[in-house]
Task: inverse folding
């Protein structure tokens, strides 16, 4: 008997790579298991089975998901110049789209990977020291500029301005 075959339908299943040391494997249902990571989840629709069974119903479902995701992404774009969590809302809309569309799932995977890489770079001690030094230099420059302004023009409180 082949260890890589599925006895129920007789089709050979590809061997899954063994998890690396310290790597957490999580199944599609969210349970931590061996063999399926978040990155290895199947691409495609996550609609309920009864919706996938009917082509018309599934197409309607996808149109609805697209319209809701579009509304959320549009709200996020409006929030970019206005007060509000614009990028967070845009990624929320992308997550809505990712429940149905493979392209959105791939964009979210790429974004998640890039954000994780940026976070790891930011935690690098060398980068942290550089960022702290740049922040300190910036604060000193601002303090000097404020000091020059106060020395040259003084401090006039808004309620003590003579007209």
Result:
């Amino acid at each position: 008997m082949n260890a890589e075959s599925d006895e129920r339908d007789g089709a050979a299943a590809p061997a899954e790579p063994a998890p690396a040391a310290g790597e957490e494997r999580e199944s599609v249902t969210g349970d931590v298991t061996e063999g399926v990571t978040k990155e290895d989840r199947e691409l495609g629709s996550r609609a309920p089975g009864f919706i996938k069974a009917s082509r018309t119903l599934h197409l309607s479902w996808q149109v609805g998901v697209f319209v809701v995701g579009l509304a959320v992404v549009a709200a996020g774009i409006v929030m970019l110049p206005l007060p509000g969590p614009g990028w967070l809302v845009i990624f929320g809309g992308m997550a809505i789209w990712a429940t149905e569309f493979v392209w959105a799932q791939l964009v979210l995977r790429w974004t998640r990977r890039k954000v994780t890489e940026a976070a790891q770079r930011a935690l690098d001690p060398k980068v942290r020291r550089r960022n702290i030094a740049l922040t300190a230099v910036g604060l000193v420059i601002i303090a000097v500029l404020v000091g020059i302004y106060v020395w040259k023009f003084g401090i006039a409180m808004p309620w003590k301005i003579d007209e």
